[in-house]
Amino acid sequence: MCRTKLVDFTDKTDIKDILKKSIQTFINGCEICQQCKYERHPIKIAMNLTPTASKAIDTFTFGVSTFFTIIDSFSKYAQEYQITSLSGTEIANNMILFFSHHGIPTRIIADNGIEFKNTVVAELLSLHKIKLHFISPNHPDSNGVVERFHSTITEHLRLLNTEGFQKAPIKMKMLYAILA
């Protein structure tokens, strides 16, 4: 009999709503709760409203080859350039190549690598009025867009090494990995 009444009660009334309202009423009437309560003003994260506004950059090594990667934070469009060294000149030249095809962004997000913290890259970005934002050290997730891209590319390159692409040059494998 009691079991039937309980089932009837839960079918007719949403217990969660009743409990929520009861707790809310109790807290709103509690003097200590009201004194300890504070207004929260969460930090507003800057949103990318246009595809050219923000880019994420990093370097990526697979085997003995190193690549400079640029990803649009809005559209997730990615581009890679094979590089022979991590010099500021080579990074800046590849940035200019990318900008000539895809436009100049207003902001670039990078890790704290020496390839991005040098006078050549700083002067190039200053010349084009691009703000460079360095992520927090030891927190690669802060540049998650590019880190996710690197993990996807690594997975695709491993798959390409097992199929009929073993003898293909790394540049060709990278192009197929990006297409995938």
From TrEMBL:
Could you give a GO molecular-function term held by this entry?
A: nucleic acid binding
Q: Give residue ranges for domain Integrase catalytic.
A: 47-180
Query: What domain of life does the UniProt record list for this protein's source?
Result: Eukaryota
Biological process per Gene Ontology, one example term: DNA integration
**Protein name as catalogued:** Integrase catalytic domain-containing protein
Species = Acanthoscelides obtectus (Bean weevil)
